[in-house]
């Protein structure tokens, strides 16, 4: 007997989604669409616990019905034999490629280019976000046709969910022999959030038919000065001239740095910042393309604009911040937004915010500390949109002019001086090492315990210079140590790396 | 209230003779039960058969019309015991659970049922949780069938065959006085397809008649000497009767093919995979025609020896396609052929892997090896099957191995269980790492990042007893976790009772989210919702105290991380002896949203004043250390590249999926992390008074802000 119509084959569609992304809805739509067109559809899924935020696959096979015959369809995607792969997230597109579901001879890969970060990417103390480039490269290499756009953003713009935008992309891809109208009819028939779904569908459809070019890089900010006295404005103008005098590689970052420290304290502080930068520039050279100065422009500004109570109060009481919050929580025009801050000030912060002498006195006196802790240290919910909540923060922010006299400032400046001294000591002999030492400032961040942990990491990494100085790979070692310190919170990797160094 | 409502699908259960039923495999089973005149159905929810229970729960009306009794059993053991009604009375009963986990629990009752045998058809619908998507140990139900002589059906995975298997199953059970298991693999449970329905049948003999006319027969009871007779009966009477029925009704199928020198013997559930593998070589088509003959075992236990001998006789070689291990079927087949003195060579696990799922690629490779060994040349000129390996070898694709972050399941956005483990993390930062015995349920996700909490998981409701051996004098106390689902399934006795009786000194955390959440949010005894057909609102605390527990603490808002942390500290350090119980209660956020969202939205539509809480992070205050994420792990709390060129590391950000549970803020507060978090209460449809107050506040605040802005020299 010969195998009848062996050429008949179903169209295979795999949907890669995460729990809660509506991958099931998309599969249901495809089934309904096919059945409405007189095709036979079979869909399977393996939700299980993957429903709970994990990655999951929905698989659909459709074939034109033949009277009196039942097709035997696969319950699993067959690697190398899938016509359409729809990925509701970029890394999931990569997973489809890795599973062999995407092959050059057959597969149209429709992916949303947005990222939904996995836990492992989010918990790193540093930057743990995976690089999308390899995924885009692999997808391009494996797919017959690879279409990607931020379907999540499109769906949100339409006030709908990503499955609707992806359904539109599927329609536009032409991978299924059904007209656009048939797709849209399916959405209407389903009857939930029809208008929004159709809007998202249209956006997804257009994104595939006429892909928009990537947005142009943001234009360089123009200098518009407001507020303050004429003297301050003049002083700031001078500061800008000083910046202009710096070599080109450092200029842009210097501009940002200057704005930060001026916003943080005052124009005079901006000039102090530039004084430090002048010193460092003197140690730098065109040969190194002024790498030292460029890096210092960022790190020194961050160090001078350390995070303290005054800064937090300042930022949280600004009009611009009130506006931003409304935007972030998508509050409508007629709606009222009441903001509550979660704060837990401790003795450390209180003392640090006192004039140096008092602060030290209190810290030394066990009795005073205990008394103040009892009176002061507790969690506080501050409602910044009420007058009674706003005013205290406003007053704390008002301490800004006196900041230089406060204990915290003196400690921070001592730390900065020691750090820069170290940098300046090594710059002449090993510029790359000096640059790496500058970058170590990145380790100091956060508040309270987090800040303490970061500071200790900073000390341990920079302290290693003593062991490394003179080696021509000293810079690389410091970089490795810093990366290790940023890889996990407890600093296990850092300990390991330091142990290795001692054996050098 | 279950996570998913089947209000619409339930209407399909009314379909009558000749109408087309479209839907999931597990729904088809439900319809088939009604078509078979079932009298009672019971079971315990769990993937992949949760939907069967959910559908029946939503179908109470129809069940009532047909006089079908439906129970949501307390456990699989309770479900299996329910089949006792079919021992003496001619009533058809069906029970269901996930296997092998549930079958383990049900075994005591199953063994007794199988020993005494049944009068009315007794069907166990098994959700075989094996392979991708499975959440349990990888074992086979086949072993249970063999040890207790319960017949095992493994039908081809399409709706008509599945429906037929249900109807055949009851008949087979009655013909051989033996309970029957119907095995449904994960994908078969969720497969969408269609079949032509028949009318539902009212039970011929009602349960009412049974209760009112009790019958007993001591020879059916598992007690010497009857128990010895039962064993002989199984071998002499029931087994032959079953084989006879299977043959006469052609439960197994032979798919003819022109290449008669070889053949394939497959479990019914593997049939579609085998056909796709054959098609890949051009040896079969999508319409079911095959060139290599196939013997389909829709019944995988017992085997029909002479059918197998007849199929194999005269063939050079056959391939046994048997998913899972050990290779029970292959071994049995070897014995059958040997005894029948049939020389046909038998391949199976030699060309196919012993363990793991038989994916299309695995089957294609196995088939190639089989044909190469059994019939060299048969594949000459055959189509070459699709093969992803060339692409997978591409260095750019290889690079994905390191580029893709793993994405294990975790707690949902706003999950009330997360703060419990945030608090546990904080207390362990103070008191050091402790031994934490896990259980079954959503809380097991604490095993993964960011919490990394939990050492073992021994079974549903067995968390506390799995810490039993560690209840010794030591400087640290063991901690055991158990969910409310596990608590009512088994934990009250095996966990709480056991801990009280043996004077344990450790800490037991009962995670009470008001539902059996992991299986789809079904109601249980302690559910707070009013359920018309079930008795709910029985507090776990009363049960715990009821069996003698003294140190019991309850918290009804798990999001209060600080309070929970203090509770843990007290439990771990108190001088009081005896087990310390902490009942941490807050409603499963998935179900809560499903309940409240529609009400909220309609209220807003009606123009009522509503407040929507949302959380946010002040980007310029956040320093990008991500300690908050390491303590919370909420999906809506993520990181993003900062717009600030001075910030090298991504800052925390909360996306629009936030449900405003407040965990992130509470954690930041309790752990004294940072002041970046804020809660924004959005007042929708504000009253005139709201607007007046807001205007007044803004007037004052705005003035102060303008004052300072005027004095500050700002450059943009």
Shape of chain B: globular
Count every beta strand of chain A, where a strand is a DSSP E run of 2 or more residues: 9
Fraction in beta strands of chain A: 5-15%
Molecular shape of chain A: elongated
The CATH superfamily of the largest domain in chain B appears as: Thiamin diphosphate (ThDP)-binding fold, Pyr/PP domains
What integer is the average pLDDT of chain B?
Answer: 94
- The CATH topology of the largest domain in chain B is given as Rossmann fold
Q: Please identify the structural class of chain A as seen in this structure.
A: alpha/beta
Low-confidence stretches of chain A: 1-6, 216-220
- Mean pLDDT of chain A, rounded to whole units? 90
Count up the helices of chain B.
Answer: 27
Relevant terms:
heterodimer, A: 504 residues, alpha/beta, Pyruvate-ferredoxin Oxidoreductase, domain 3, six-stranded mixed sheet, 24 helices, 9 strands, 55% helix, B: 716 residues, Rossmann fold, seven-stranded mixed sheet, six-stranded parallel sheet, 40% helix
């Amino acid at each position: 007997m010969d195998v009848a119509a062996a050429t008949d084959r179903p169209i295979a569609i795999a949907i890669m989604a995460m729990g809660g992304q509506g991958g099931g809805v998309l599969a249901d739509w495809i089934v309904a669409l096919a059945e409405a067109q007189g095709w036979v559809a079979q869909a399977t899924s393996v939700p299980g616990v993957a429903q709970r935020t994990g990655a999951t696959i929905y698989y659909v096979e459709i074939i034109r019905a033949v009277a009196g015959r039942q097709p035997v369809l696969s319950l699993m995607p067959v690697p190398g034999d899938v016509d359409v792969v729809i990925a509701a997230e970029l890394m999931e597109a990569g997973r489809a490629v890795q599973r062999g579901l995407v092959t050059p001879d057959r597969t149209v890969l429709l992916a949303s280019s947005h990222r939904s970060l996995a836990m492992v990417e989010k918990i790193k103390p540093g930057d743990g976000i995976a690089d999308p480039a390899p995924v885009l490269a692999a997808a391009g290499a494996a797919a017959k046709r690879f279409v990607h756009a931020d379907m999540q953003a499109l769906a949100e713009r339409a006030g709908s969910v990503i499955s609707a935008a992806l359904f539109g992309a599927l329609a536009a891809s032409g991978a299924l022999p059904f007209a656009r109208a048939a797709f849209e009819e399916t959405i209407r028939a389903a009857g939930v959030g029809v208008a929004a779904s159709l809007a998202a569908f249209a956006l997804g459809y257009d994104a595939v038919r006429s892909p928009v070019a990537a947005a142009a890089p943001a234009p360089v900010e123009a200098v518009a000065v407001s507020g303050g006295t004429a003297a301050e404005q003049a002083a700031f103008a001078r500061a800008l001239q000083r910046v202009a005098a710096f070599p080109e590689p450092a200029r842009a970052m210097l501009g940002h740095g200057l704005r930060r420290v001026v916003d943080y304290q005052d124009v005079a502080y901006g000039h102090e910042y530039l004084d430090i930068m002048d010193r460092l520039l003197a140690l730098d050279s065109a040969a190194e393309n002024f790498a030292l100065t460029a890096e210092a422009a960022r790190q020194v500004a961050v160090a001078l604009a350390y995070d303290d109570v005054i800064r937090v109060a300042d930022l949280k009481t600004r009009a611009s911040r009130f506006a931003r919050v409304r935007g972030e929580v998508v509050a409508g025009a007629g709606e009222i937004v009441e903001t509550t801050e979660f704060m837990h000030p401790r003795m450390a912060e209180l003392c640090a915010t006192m004039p140096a002498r008092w602060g030290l006195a209190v810290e030394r006196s066990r009795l005073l500390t205990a008394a103040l802790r009892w009176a002061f240290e507790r969690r506080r919910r501050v409602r910044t949109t009420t007058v009674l909540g706003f005013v205290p923060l406003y007053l704390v922010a008002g301490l800004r002019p006196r900041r230089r006299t406060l204990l915290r400032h003196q400690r921070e400046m001592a730390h900065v001086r020691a750090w820069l001294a170290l940098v300046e000591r090594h710059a002449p002999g090993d510029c790359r090492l000096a640059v790496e030492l500058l970058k170590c400032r990145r380790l100091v961040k956060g508040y309270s315990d987090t800040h303490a942990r970061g500071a200790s990491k900073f000390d341990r990494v920079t302290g290693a210079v003593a062991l490394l100085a003179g080696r021509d790979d000293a810079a690389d070692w410091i970089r490795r140590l810093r990366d290790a310190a940023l890889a996990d919170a407890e600093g296990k990797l850092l300990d390991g790396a330091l142990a290795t160094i001692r054996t050098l | 209230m279950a996570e998913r409502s089947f209000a619409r699908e339930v209407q399909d259960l009314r379909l009558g003779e000749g109408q087309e039923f479209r839907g999931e495999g597990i729904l088809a089973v439900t319809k088939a039960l009604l078509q078979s005149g079932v009298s009672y159905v019971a079971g315990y929810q769990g993937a992949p058969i949760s939907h069967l229970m959910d559908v029946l729960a939503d179908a109470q009306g129809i069940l009532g019309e047909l006089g079908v009794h439906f129970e949501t059993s307390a456990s699989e053991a309770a479900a299996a015991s329910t089949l006792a009604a079919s021992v003496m009375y001619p009533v058809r009963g069906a029970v269901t659970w996930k296997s092998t986990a549930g079958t383990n629990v049900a075994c005591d009752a199953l063994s007794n049922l199988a020993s005494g045998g049944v009068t009315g058809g007794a069907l166990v619908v098994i959700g075989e949780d094996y392979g991708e998507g499975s959440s349990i140990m990888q074992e086979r139900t086949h072993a249970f069938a063999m040890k207790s002589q319960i017949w095992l059906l493994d039908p081809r995975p399409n709706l008509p065959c599945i429906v037929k298997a249900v109807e055949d199953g009851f008949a087979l059970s009655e013909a051989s006085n033996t309970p029957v298991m119907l095995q449904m693999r994960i994908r078969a449970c969720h497969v969408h397809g269609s079949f032509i329905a028949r009318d539902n049948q009212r039970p011929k003999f009602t349960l009412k008649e049974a209760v009112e006319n009790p019958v007993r027969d001591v020879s059916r009871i598992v007690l010497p000497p009857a128990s010895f007779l039962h064993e002989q009966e199984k071998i002499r009477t029931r087994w032959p009767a079953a084989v006879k029925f299977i043959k006469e009704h052609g439960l197994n199928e032979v798919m003819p093919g022109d290449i008669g020198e070889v053949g394939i013997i497959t479990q019914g559930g593997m049939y579609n995979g085998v056909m796709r593998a054959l098609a890949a070589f051009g040896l079969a088509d999508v319409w079911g025609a095959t060139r290599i003959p196939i013997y389909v075992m829709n019944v995988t236990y017992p085997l029909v020896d002479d059918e197998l001998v007849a199929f194999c006789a005269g063939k050079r070689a056959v391939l046994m396609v048997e998913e899972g291990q050990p290779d029970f079927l292959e071994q049995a087949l070897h014995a059958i052929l040997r005894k029948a003195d049939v020389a046909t060579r038998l391949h199976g696990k030699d060309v196919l892997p012993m363990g793991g799922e038989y994916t299309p690629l695995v089957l294609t490779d196995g088939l190639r090896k089989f044909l190469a060994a059994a019939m060299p040349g048969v594949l000459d000129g055959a189509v070459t099957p699709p093969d992803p390996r060339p692409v997978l070898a591409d260095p750019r694709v290889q690079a994905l191995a390191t580029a893709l972050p793993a994405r294990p399941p975790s707690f949902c956005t706003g999950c009330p269980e997360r703060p419990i483990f945030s608090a546990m993390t904080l207390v362990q930062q103070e008191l050091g790492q402790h031994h934490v015995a896990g259980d079954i349920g959503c809380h097991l996700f604490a095993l993964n990042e960011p919490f990394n909490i939990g050492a073992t998981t021994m079974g549903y409701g067995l968390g506390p007893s799995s810490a039993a051996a560690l209840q010794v004098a030591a400087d640290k106390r063991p901690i055991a976790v158990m969910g409310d689902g596990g608590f009512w399934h088994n934990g009250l006795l095996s966990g709480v009772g056991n801990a009280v009786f043996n004077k344990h000194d450790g800490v037991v955390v009962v995670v009470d989210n008001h539902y059996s959440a992991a299986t789809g949010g079904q109601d249980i005894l302690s559910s707070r919702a009013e359920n018309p057909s079930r008795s709910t609102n029985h507090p776990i605390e009363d049960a715990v105290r009821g069996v003698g527990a003294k140190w019991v603490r309850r918290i009804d808002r798990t999001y209060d991380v600080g309070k929970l942390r203090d509770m843990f500290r007290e439990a771990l350090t108190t001088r009081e002896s005896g087990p310390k119980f902490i009942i941490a209660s807050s409603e499963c956020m998935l179900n809560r949203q499903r309940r409240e969202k529609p009400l909220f939205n309609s209220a807003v539509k009606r123009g009522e004043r509503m407040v929507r809480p949302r959380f946010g992070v002040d980007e310029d205050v956040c320093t990008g250390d991500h300690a908050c994420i390491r303590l919370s792990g909420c999906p809506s709390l993520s990181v993003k590249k900062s717009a600030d060129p001075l910030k090298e590391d991504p800052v925390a950000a909360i996306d629009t999926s936030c449900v405003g549970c407040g965990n992130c803020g509470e954690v930041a507060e309790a752990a004294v992390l940072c002041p970046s978090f804020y809660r924004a209460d959005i007042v929708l449809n504000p009253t005139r008074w709201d607007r007046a107050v807001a205007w007044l506040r803004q007037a004052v605040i705005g003035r102060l802000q303008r004052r300072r802005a005027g004095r500050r020299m700002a450059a943009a």
